[in-house]
Amino acid sequence: MDTEPSKGFPSMRLLVPVVSLVLLAALGAALIAATDQLTRKRVAENEAAQIMKVLDALLPEGGYDNSPHLDVIRLTGAELPASNAAVPVYRARRAGAPVTAILTVIAPDGYVGSIRLLVGIRVDGTISGVRALEHRETPGLGDNIELGRSDWIRLFDGRSIEDPAPAAWLTRRDGGDFDQISGATVTSRAVIAAVRDSLIYFAENRDLLFSEPVDLEVR
């Protein structure tokens, strides 16, 4: 004698595919979340490795004994060239004494968009070096701010707010002391101005930059 399925309950034949779909959807969501988390971690690790590589290039070999990528304070765009978010300053020390501050600087007025730089400034106010971290400047022209493409960025090595005087922190085309990159005057102006502003900020806030506790956000 056939038994009629109870009314109000789905048959097992219908229920199994539904449960399978739910389980597959949950598994897919879990895999996507895990992949996204892994990707984010790898991106963060790659960015950290890039930062540490650049820091090493801007610091004197054997001239510091701390971990600059861990000795960090954060500044908002109110102090340095425009940035909506707080940007890090890395500090190098030797036996606890300040050696170099490496400021993350945003030059907002590149030819294509903002240019992110690292500007290393020794405790005596001279520049240990400048490097371009991120930009979208024109290939073959504005991207010559990258050290691997030209030596132009080395024009800042050893300079200070008094060498040249602030009024001379311009391209030669504008009556200043710095050669512009051929075909990329706008890019050159943006970088020169950002480096100058970094030096001005450093001169006015030297003690603050080296005395604040690690990971303090300065507003």
Descriptive report:
It is a single chain. Strand 3 and strand 4 form a beta hairpin. 34% of the residues lie in helices and 19% in strands. The protein has 219 residues and is an alpha+beta fold. It is elongated. It has two domains: 50 residues; 155 residues, no CATH class. It is built from two helices and six strands; from the N terminus they run αβββββαβ.
Shape: elongated
**Would you identify the regions where 5 or more consecutive residues have pLDDT less than 50?**
none
The helical percent reads: 25-40%
How many separate helices?
2
> Main β-sheet, in a few words?
6 strands, mixed
Q: Got a strand count? A: 6
Secondary-structure element pattern, one letter each = HEEEEEHE
Mean pLDDT over the residues: 84
Distance between the termini: 82 Å
Strand content: 15-25%
As a whole number of angstroms, the C-alpha radius of gyration is 26 Å
- List the strand order in the largest sheet: 5-4-3-2-1-6
Count of the domains: 2
- The structural class is alpha+beta
